[in-house]
Write a structure and sequence with these properties.
65% helix; two-stranded antiparallel sheet; mainly alpha; 11 helices; globular
């Protein structure tokens, strides 16, 4: 029972949490399409469609893997030793998701570097870091398809370390580059983006922390599937981080535009009531323009008077 808890039990928990993250991805994608419904077909919309498609496939393959081991082959221990085809398929989808998000983070860095002498930074990451991570992941997939039993994964630990290490390095470099460029920006346009540095740090650090957790658990517990549980969640964090970045940019621009508007001026007229000698209220010509249409009339009768005088007081009601 203990072996099932930290092996297939960990995969089951990871699949359940991954389904929750997939729901968050759908919500974020819906918000993005709602806020950009009038912009037509753009590169970022196609990127969101692509990530959602890959994320949905990843959920299907992960749940198919869990179903194969825990339902189809229930009480069949020999089948638990084999590697299901859906397990290998989800590794392929995971590779596409991580590489796609790495590449999609580069255009924002390139835009922020516009007008500076620091464009060598995204060029360097494009030409070296991202391809290195992609090559390491492809090598992992090649070695993975040579394995037929789960115990064979111990033979390709060097590929796992190299792939996870490269992914962690790229995620850290992208997050640190975005934060550095936004903090050191001097133009007025870049000034409006400084408040999303915290969100960029959080999203970048989440993917890096998850990759580091995979490496640490793989080194500390290579005999169980705890590291695979973190690996199942890695792609979900990448998709959510990129969608959160797209939505944060839009809502921050809206808030920045709204905060630049001057608050409306509220005119509070003074109440002036004059009582004529004949006992009727009289309002001056200037007061007629000061009192708004939304008024409330209060009639007051003095208790002791030879000739009762009705005084009509007009006050303006203000909503707090």
């Amino acid at each position: 029972m203990a072996q099932l808890d930290n092996t297939f039990g960990m995969l089951y928990i990871s699949a359940a949490v991954g389904a929750i993250f997939f729901g968050l991805s759908i919500v974020q994608a819906f918000l993005y399409f709602q806020t950009h419904r009038d912009s037509g077909v753009t590169f970022y919309k196609l990127a969101v469609y692509w990530l959602l498609f890959l994320d949905a496939l990843h959920v299907v393959f992960v749940n198919s893997t869990i179903y194969y081991y825990l339902v189809t082959n229930y009480a069949n221990p020999p089948a638990l030793l084999e590697i299901a085809w859906s397990f290998k398929a989800q590794m392929v989808i995971d590779t596409f998701i991580v590489s796609s998000v790495h590449l999609l983070y580069l255009p924002p860095i390139w835009i922020i570097c516009k007008g500076r002498n620091m464009r060598i930074l995204p060029v360097f990451m494009t030409a070296s870091l991202v391809p290195i991570s992609a090559v390491a992941t492809v090598l992992l997939l090649v070695e993975m398809f040579k394995c037929y039993y789960l115990s064979d994964l111990k033979k390709i630990l060097w590929c796992l370390y190299m792939s996870l290490g490269c992914a962690t390095l790229v995620a850290f470099m992208i997050a640190s580059s975005m934060c550095y460029l936004l903090v050191t920006s001097n133009t007025k346009t870049d000034m409006t983006l400084r408040s999303i540095v915290r969100a960029i740090i959080n999203t970048g650090c989440l993917t890096s922390i998850c990759s580091m957790a995979c490496i640490i658990t793989l080194a500390a517990m290579p005999d169980n599937f705890v590291y695979l549980g973190f690996e199942f969640l890695l792609s979900k964090l990448y998709v959510n981080s990129y969608l959160a970045l797209l939505n944060a940019r839009y809502y921050h621009d809206i808030n920045a535009h709204t905060s630049q508007r001057r608050p409306p001026r509220v005119y509070r007229p003074e109440l002036q009531v004059n009582v004529s000698q004949d006992g009727f209220p009289r309002t001056s010509g200037a007061d007629k323009f000061q009192v708004s249409d939304r008024t409330r009339e209060h009639t007051y009768y003095p208790p002791a008077a030879d000739h009762p005088i009705a005084v009509v007081v007009e006050t303006e009601s203000f909503s707090m």
